[in-house]
Specification:
This protein is of the alpha/beta class. The chain has two domains: 263 residues, TIM Barrel; 65 residues. It has an eight-stranded parallel β-barrel, surrounded by seven helices. A two-stranded antiparallel ribbon has the order 1-4. The chain has a two-stranded antiparallel sheet with strand order 2-3. Helix 7 links the parallel strand 9 and strand 10. It binds flavin mononucleotide.
């Protein structure tokens, strides 16, 4: 693959019943054609409490291969438990939106997948990577790496429940002794999984230690479906290196996009043209944050919205090196009008170079 960006085509496609991969196309099952609309597939990672609808909408507006919802517990979604259906809500007009489901029981996973598809999800992603104790102790997320037979039952249930493509997100394995992502990937491909994302760490590493992009290349060798590399990609340099080492077909960015919703589009464009610049200037930055803030308040209502917006404001202010005192004033403010009025000063140190 041309990693200097010269050879990458503008449109990357997900399509076709039989997975066929060319250098510049991602083709996945079930006759769905998704034109990523960017020069190289850079996907937004699902992040609980972060990649909610307002954030996905913002990232998608800049341009992203795919934006994936926060993980949604399948049973909670089907039973309509508080907040779960909101997590799966798609912004009108988001073409490249995936809903990620987690769970241990085939019945709930299949039902939740049907609901997400009915609501317009263009892809269903299955979570087999979450390392959290609460999830793993319920035998879902990365715990499924210890029980591939059951993992495959879940995959079959979801793939057979929907017409849209189904992808899988997992890790290299459970721990250093059980690096079995390739086995899972091979079997998942046979069951109709359309694309696999690998976070280059094991479950027992959680988010610590160095990410192992090179180990993702073993998964890539094992299957014919697209493999997406994930973990510690924060800019074009790390994106290029992750791609070189993993030999992946695309990359997925999570934490690096916090406070920088344009990052995915920026990376994607740089693969095509190193001189491309997608970074907003000061006034645009203020406008983006103000719109994001108002969208959060509208989506969650003022009380919850004020609280949830703080982490995003914090990331925006990290990026802009906002002085501590002003930062604290903004994060403690109870009045949206006061927050909005403070943004131009908070972001005056922003340098888009
Ligand atoms: C706060 C947080 C929440 C996350 N939630 C999810 C999730 O809901 N589903 C999932 O598959 N991965 C989740 N992840 C893992 C990310 O999708 C991603 O694999 C990981 O952060 C590594 O990528 P990054 O270094 O680009 O952030 C989460 C990570 C973080 C930091």
């Amino acid at each position: 693959m041309g990693l200097n960006g010269e050879n990458l085509c503008t449109d990357v496609l997900l399509t076709g019943k039989l997975p066929i991969i060319s250098r510049h196309m991602l083709r996945v099952s079930k006759n769905l054609l998704i034109n990523f609309g960017t020069s190289f597939p850079v996907l937004l990672a699902p992040m609980a409490g972060i990649t909610d609808m307002p954030f996905r909408k913002l990232v998608a507006r800049f341009g992203a291969g795919l934006v994936v919802s926060e993980m949604i517990a399948s049973k909670d979604m089907v039973l309509g438990r508080l907040g779960s259906r909101e997590k799966a809500k798609l912004a009108y007009g988001i073409e490249h939106s995936a809903v990620q489901l987690a769970g241990r029981e085939t019945h709930w996973m299949a039902e939740a997948a049907r609901m997400a598809e009915a609501n317009g999800a263009k892809l269903i992603d299955i979570n087999m990577g979450c390392p959290a104790k609460k999830v793993v102790s319920g035998y879902s997320g990365s715990a499924l790496l210890k029980d591939l037979d059951h993992a495959l039952d879940l995959i079959d249930a979801v793939v057979n429940a929907v017409k849209v493509p189904v992808s899988l997100k997992t890790r290299l394995g459970w721990d250093d002794r059980l690096h079995n992502a390739s086995d899972l990937a091979r079997r998942a491909e046979d069951s109709g999984i359309a694309m696999i994302t690998i976070h280059g760490r094991t479950r027992c590493q959680f988010y610590k230690g160095k990410v192992n992009w090179a180990a993702i290349s073993k998964v890539k060798k094992a299957v014919n479906i697209p493999v997406v590399a994930n973990g510690d990609i924060v800019d074009f340099t790390t994106a290029k290196e992750a791609l070189r080492q993993s030999r992946g077909d695309g990359i997925m960015v999570g934490r690096g996009a916090c406070g920088k919703p344009w990052l995915l589009a920026e990376i994607s464009k740089k693969f095509k043209d190193m001189t491309a610049n997608n970074v907003p200037d000061n006034s645009e930055f203020c406008r983006i944050v103000a719109e994001h803030y108002e969208d959060i308040l509208q989506f969650y209502g003022k009380d919850l919205g004020l609280r949830l917006a703080r982490k995003h404001l914090g990331w925006y202010m990290n990026v802009c090196h906002t002085p501590l005192e002003l930062r604290q004033t903004i994060l403690r403010a109870e009045s949206p009008a006061k927050v909005l009025a403070s943004l131009p000063i908070a972001f005056e140190r922003w340098n888009s170079e």
